Each structure stands twice: as C-alpha cells, then as structure tokens.
Task: structure prediction
Amino acid sequence: MKNVKGGRDGRSRIMDGALRLFSKDGVSATTLASLRDESGVSVGSFYHHFASKEHVFGVLYAETLDMYQEAFLAELRRHEKARDGVEAIVAMHMAWCGDHPERARLLITERPPRRHEPGGPEVAELRRAFFRRVAEWWRPHVEAGLLQPVPPTMCYVLWLGPAQEMCRLWFAGAHQPTPEEISALSRAAWHSLRQPTAEPTD
Result:
C-alpha cells in the first residue's frame, strides 16, 4: 500500500486515486484492491466512505460533469452574439480537456451512470439543469433567425462532436491539435448550427 501524507481524509485520497486509475486503465479494468492500494486506504476506511467501486465512479463522474458544465456555462454567459458563443465553447472545450486530461478522459470514454446506478440521479439532475441554462441562452438566437432549433442531443453532436473526436486522438497520443485546427473546429460548429438564412459572419 502506498504511503500517504497525513492530513488528507480518506475520501479525498480514494477520489484522487480513482481518477488516476480510471483515466489510465478504465473503470472496468480497475479492481477494488488496486484502487485501495493507489489511494493508500484500508478496507475499513474505503467502506466507511463508499459502498463499491461503482459508487466511487458515480460520485467522481457527477463531480467531474459538474466542473465541466460550470466552465461551459461561465464561458457561454460571456458572449451575447450567437457566433461568438458557439465558437468560444469549442475553444473552451479543448482548453478544459487540456487542463484536466484525467477528468476529460473520464467524461469522453466512460458510459455515464444510469438513473438506477450510483451517481445516476445526480448526473440526470445536472444534465437537466444544464440543458435548461443552455436553452435560455440559445432560444433568443433561434428567435432572431441565427441558430437552428435543434434538440439537445443533436445540438451536442453538431457543436462538440468533432472536438470530442479530436480529443480522443489527442489522448490516444495520435495527434496534438494545433491552434489553427481548434479555430477550424470552432468555425465548423458555427456553420453546422447557424440557420441557413443567417449570414456566415453574424
């Protein structure tokens, strides 16, 4: 078992260890024994904080999703113009993934917990509140004839799908995205989401 410094509670050590292992090996390949060893906690300490490995994953996923959504919404609120907001979010997404690679891998590669699984209700509520806030920003631009009235799933795919694929290549070590490529992804998102009647420069 790893030695750990005093003063850090067991829950934080478990969460940190889980983030490292889940990012490196994936949730399914991480054993409870390896998680305890990575975290430096005893069996009793682990079960004092969590009921299972899946419980750790659910809590960690919800925490990470909340972090990402807060960064997303903070960036979106900075922009009043439709094109500025759409393009800025793509750049923010790439920057956030670069700043938080372990957490980004978790969101990109792992299936979110379902409603009946640990963390599932929290994730569902986070998504509900998140999409409501995005819609509040989106709706006036639809009414102004600038953005398409697309449902949430299609909006996500058109907005960040290509950027997500770029991140997969990045994390796999296959390609390092350049600033020019990120700008191209941002422009592509705008052209995918703008209404046909909207001027490309709006």
